[in-house]
Amino acid sequence: MANKVNAIILTGNGTNCEMEMAHACKLAGADRHDIVHISELLHGEKRLNDYNFLNLPGGFLDGDDLGSAKAGANRFLHAPISGANEMLIEELLKFIKRGGLILGVCNGFQLMVKLGLLPGMNGNYTKQTSTLTFNDSGRFEDRWVYLKANKQSPCVFSRGLELVYYPVRHGEGKFIPESATMLAQIENNNLVVFRYCDAKGSVTMDYPLNPNGSTNAIAGICNETGRLFGMMPHPEAFLHRTNHPRWTREDLTEEGQGLAIFQNAVAFIRSDEF
Amino acid sequence: MAYRIEVAFKKDIRDALGEKTKKRIRGNLDLPVANVATIEVYTIEGNLTAEELKRAAEGPLSDPVIQEYAVNLPLAKNFDWLIEVGFRPGVTDNVGKTAREAITLLLGESLGNRKINVYTSRQYLLSGPVSRTDAERIASDLLANDLIERHLVVGKDEFDFQKGLPAVIPQVTGKDKPRVEQINLTNLDAAALLKISQEKLLALNLEEMRAIVKYYRNPAVVKGRRKIGLNENTTDVELECLAQTWSEHCKHKIFNSRIEYRDGRTKKIINSLFKTFIKGSTAKIRKAKGKRDFCLSVFVDNAGVIKFNNKHNLVFKVETHNSPSALDPYGGALTGIVGVNRDPFGTGLGAKLIFNTDVFCFASPFHKKKLPPRILHPRRIFDGVREGVEHGGNKSGIPTVNGSIVFDERFLGKPLVYCGTAGIMPAKINGKPSHKKEIKPGDVIIMTGGRIGKDGIHGATFSSEELHEGSPVTAVQIGDPITQKKMTDFLLKARDMGLYRALTDNGAGGLSSSVGEMATYSGGCEMDLSLAPLKYAGLQPWEILVSEAQERMSLAVDPKKVGKFLELARKMDVEATVLGKFTNSGKFHIRYGEKTVAYLDMGFLHEGVPQMKLFASWKAPKHLEPTFSPPADLGKALIQMLGRLNICSKESVVRQYDHEVQGGSIIKPMVGAQNDGPSDAAVVRPVLDSFEGVVVAHGICPRYSDIDAYHMTACAIDEAVRNAVAVGVDLDHLAGLDNFCWCDPVQSDKTPDGHFKLAQLVRANMAIYDYTTAYGVPCISGKDSMKNDYSIGKTKISVPPTLLYSVIGKIHDVRNAVTMDAKRPQDLVYILGETRDELGGSEWFGQHGVIGNKVPRVDAKKAIKLYRALGKAIRAGLVASCHDCSDGGLAVALAETAFAGGLGLNINLKNVPYRGKKRDDYILFSESASRFVVTIHPKDQAKFEKLLAGQVAREIGFVTSDGLLQISGLSGKIIIKEKIGKLKAAWQAPLNF
Questions:
Q1: Which neighbouring-strand residues pair with B617?
Q2: Which residues pair with A130 in a beta bridge?
Q3: Where exactly are the structural domains of chain A?
Q4: What pLDDT is stored for residue B468 in this prediction?
Q5: What is the pLDDT of residues B883-932, one digit of tens each?
Q6: What distance in Å separates the CA atoms of residue B785 and residue B740, rounded to the nearest whole number?
Q7: Are the CB atoms for A70 and B99 separated by under 8 Å?
Q8: B437 to chain A, minimum CA–CA distance in Å?
Q9: Is B666 an interface residue toward A (CB < 8 Å)?
Q10: What is the C-alpha separation between B402 and B700, in angstroms, rounded?
Q11: What is the share, in percent, of chain B residues with pLDDT greater than 90?
């Protein structure tokens, strides 16, 4: 029998895209799509153990006051689960070890990178080796961008995708690895999942097609297993054609392009590969 | 002990904030700085070891990939001037608070009982040929707001590169013992009473002070007071509470006054503008709608409530935050948006927030003349307000979907900052109607969210005055969207679990207002101010009562549920404190510990304010009519018009707001082939399982007030309605909000033209009645801000009387919504509605420096028929694009339709239905109301014309693929032939900051 897909959508402390992300999981066919407040994890009322698809939605964890998701990452690293004699990070690492999928979007991606989950080379998930920082423009921007998928990527979320169009809504989306060596590892292992490109799919560093000046136009990366994936653009913001900025003038499929990311996750968990 | 941790970008990492600052210094102040680098400074108060400081610095406080840090050592190097900017004592420091929480969590149990505090500041390292005076100017005119921030300018020769700057803690020091002042007002004369009102910033007039005196002279009152240990003296707590409750801001005294109105021919007595025209019109509309009435709660709660469908209600409120934004644009606007968020949130049983709107009125950001004292440069106000709303909206996860920016030199005196928020709530929660409030005697008063500080004291009374020399520093608050988000996450959960009976927000007037208003439901309250959680010690009881410190809600909780409520709050890391209970004693009873500090009859507190008696006298102003002849080059004229501040693109602002969060974005602020055309209204889908949508739009046209505020109001209402119609709203399901921003209309030495200004207000209200009833669009809530004047020395600047009319409505299926961009070559172009030579107050006359007298007049009867016919055509799928004609008239609407669609238009002006003086420029730029430019597919022509039969609707041309806007004039000659790229560039250039 196919696996049940139990999606958890984590919220609290400034997260704000949980509703549409849960809706995406639901539309994609997840059996459960629970919005869980982080306090429920910290009080042991809900356990990551009960899920196999962790969604880290966009928002402003702690206002991004110390840099995007920095204080949020600090909480994941240092907060104990009350009454469980365990730290939250330990529970998270167990979730990864069990092969659970993690999707981080925008602030969720920032959180994954600042924690060290991504790129998470050699399975070291708690050492930060890259960052997402201020856009070259120095400003927050909401605009739609084209993304070219890397077909060689091991990412399970992007299978079958080539060119997609999603909105970015961030002030800190410029990806910078700690060193040239780290960048080479990311590139050589095909961990780059999406790059900013023009409408025809040519990768670009030109603003505003590349909205933040990201290194190698990187918009999203995964880890070596392809099960942990983060991206700055918001697939959950494009679930229906009417979300598209030009839906009143273009012929579009009823389903929005963002749904594919979630459908891939669901299909993967249901498959024998999981 | 105090420590300093400094964090800077590593070499070769781009300092985006530094670059932006450099750009602003060069652009706004025209000073030749070569480079700006920034350093974040965390000043930590407490007792930490060197090892612990290092962990904090390399952990949450810095990013190892791109930043370096130093503990108690300076990082600054290679600069000419170092400017450090930090907050003044007591000002909300959101980043400091987050840093404290992060370090506390990081150190965990090892911290023991050691307490720490973190204060943030920022260093700007400037290099380049600027003098000390210039550096000071950069600090005070751009980087720091001296009202809330301190700054230090250090030259490279003065800086100690070994030790850096000392750690300074901006702590609130005054630790006064709580003290209640007793004032005997009963024997004071008029002058002494007014002096007290002025010195204490009470903003109460003589008659109101006398009403208070009368209360304290009443033997029965005094007898009751003696029983609880008070006497005929007024306590400062009571006086402040009365001043707040009776403030113009809270009581709307002008709107409730008795007005004798004359307009030359007639004389009328109006007993309350609010009751007569606003409540009166809504009552009439609701009656006419009968069973189809969708209003649920109007004018009684923090926001208006209407039905969305059988399962959900919509809640909408728009507020202004003008005075605080004049003093601190960032903090004022931020507080404006997070403040108005709490209105729908605190309505009925509480609503989930679904979108924000914002409308700003500024003077030109390119203002070159010398500024009067205490006025910030309009560019600075623009940038600060924009950023405040960005942070307030984006960080709260509420999309900002609709807005505009209006420019007029008179907004130099006070900028207008309108912030709106809508919410949605289940029609029933735990079986009870969600839009109703109920409080029982014995229910417990709980305050939740942030703590109380000196911030925002006298906000309510201050906004009831003009901006003057002594405007208080403490009137400014800085909101914290994350504290509020945590609180709203918690309260929505508590709501669904049925853990509270009622809630309301702490906005203007703080606890005095929130608990005072809630107490009217049960008939009294008893509250102990000493229990209230404070940000720092040293607040006086009266300050605790009226502080407007942000992010707080007051609740009424069933005593049986208090335990569960507090438990959930603790778990979700939100502060919640029991302050007392609601009673039916008829008294507003406030204690500090055991001692009673205020004891007022509820009836006196809420109904005791004397009605003002005012005079209004209308005489239509006569302006010069223009004498300019039609320009030879109308293409050039159109390009100039597109670049006018009130017409040009606001995209650089729009893009910085998240307008899509929550996933329901259907019509975005920018639409068209390149996502850069200006949409008329926003459409969102608040319930993702359904295709039912919410439409939001607005109208605002202060320039027409120069001629007649009646027509200004009519045009604003019409603009709001027609914007909503343009995207496909259901006209039978559309409600409005009126937000008046007026200059002081009360005749006095300061306002010698008060009778005229009040007549403008009366006329605006008459138009509200006439037009909302004609359209069947009821006002469900609103607000007035009546003192938008600047008066220092001999300079007085009054804003033009300005009404923002916002509408919220329903579209039954969002898939029927229409955008304004031309869609396909060969589509036919129609103009709907009659054009007349109504250019009084228009942008075209403004371009020529004249006002004129022929203001656009709205023919509501014709308009409503046209809107209904157009609505049918839209629902039938016959309309390819629809754009309303407003500022700049037909020509601007055509240009926008063309370049938004990336297509040309070929137009013949001869076919435009027009009445008046025959001039091409008049037809092109007239701002007659109730008009649209519509494009349709040729195959739909017959059906479309059939639906529009009997309306003024005429085919005037077609869409082309040549990328040219080509218009032939009355003579048949081509009068405009411009590339759409050129038109768009002109439209985008001015505010592309």
A1: B262
A2: A177
A3: 6-270
A4: 56
A5: 999 999 999 999 999 999 999 999 999 999 999 999 999 999 999 999 99
A6: 6
A7: no
A8: 27
A9: yes
A10: 13
A11: 84
Mean pLDDT of B98-118: 93
Interface test with B, best of A61, A134, A198 (most B CBs within 10 A): A134
What is the 8-class DSSP label of residue B197?
Answer: H
Mean pLDDT of chain A: 96
HEC secondary structure over B527-574: EEHHHCCECCCCCCHHHHHHCCCCCEEEEEECHHHHHHHHHHHHHCCC
CA gap B525, B401 in Å, rounded: 40
3-state SS of B829-851 is EEEECCEECCCCCCHHHHHCCCC
Place domain B2-155 in its CATH homologous superfamily. Phosphoribosylformylglycinamidine synthase subunit PurS (3.30.1280.10)
Answer whether A63 sits within 8 Å of B102, measured CB to CB. no
Q: What is the mean pLDDT of chain B?
A: 94
> Confidence band (pLDDT; 50, 70, 90) for B200?
confident
Which residues of A are identified as catalytic?
106, 234, 236
Would you tell me how many other CB atoms lie within 10 Å of the CB of residue B116? Answer: 18
Backbone angles phi, psi at A77, to 5 degrees: -75, -35
- CATH superfamily of this structure's domain B818-993: PurM-like C-terminal domain (3.90.650.10)
The answer to whether A160 contacts chain B (CB < 8 Å) is: no
Q: What is the pLDDT, as a whole number, of residue B469?
A: 53
Tokens matching residue B200: 């204490």
Q: Compare all CA atoms of chain B with the CA of A135 and give the residue at the minimum distance.
A: B16
Fold of A6-270: Rossmann fold (3.40.50)
Task: Output the pLDDT for position B693.
Answer: 98
Q: How far apart are the first and last CA of chain A?
A: 13
pLDDT in tens, A161-206: 999 999 999 999 999 999 999 999 999 999 999 999 999 999 999 9
Q: Which residues in chain B are contacts of A16 at CB distance < 8 A?
A: 396-397, 485, 661-662
Band of the pLDDT at B397, cuts 50, 70, 90?
very high
CB contacts < 8 A (A, B)? 185
Cross-strand bridge partners of residue B8: B39, B68
Domains B2-155 and B181-255+437-609 share a fold: no
Cα separation of B513 and B500, whole Å?
A: 19
- B710 vs B855: CA distance, rounded Å: 10
Supply the pLDDT for residue B463.
54
Q: Is A62 on the interface with B (CB under 8 A)?
A: yes
SS3 B28: helix
- Compute the nearest-CA separation of A245 from chain B (Å): 6
Sheet holding B613-617, edge to edge: B267-271, B258-262, B613-617
CB-facing half-sphere around the CA of B340: CA atoms within 13 A:
33
- Work out the minimum CA distance from B484 to partner chain A, whole angstroms: 9
Per-residue model confidence as pLDDT tens digits over B17-58 = 999 999 989 988 889 999 999 999 999 999 999 999 999 999
Q: For the segment B918-970, what is each residue's pLDDT rounded down to a tens digit?
A: 999 999 999 999 999 999 999 999 999 999 999 999 999 999 999 999 999 99
CB contact under 8 A, A138 and B19: yes
The answer on pLDDT for B766 being more than 60 is yes
CA distance B87 to B93: 7
Q: So what's the pLDDT on residue B473? A: 53
Distance CA B312, CA B348 (A): 13
Of B65, B78, B1, the residue nearest B39 (C-alpha):
B78
Q: Which tokens in the block code for residue B802?
A: 């300005």
> Tokens 């609709």, residue?
B402
Fold of B181-255+437-609: Phosphoribosyl-aminoimidazole Synthetase; Chain A, domain 2 (3.90.650)
In chain B, what are the domain boundaries? Answer: 2-155, 181-255+437-609, 818-993
Residue B277 DSSP label = I
Check if B632 contacts A (Cβ < 8 Å): no
Which of B67, B118, B352, B482 would best serve as a mutation to test chain A binding (most A beta carbons within 10 A)?
A: B482
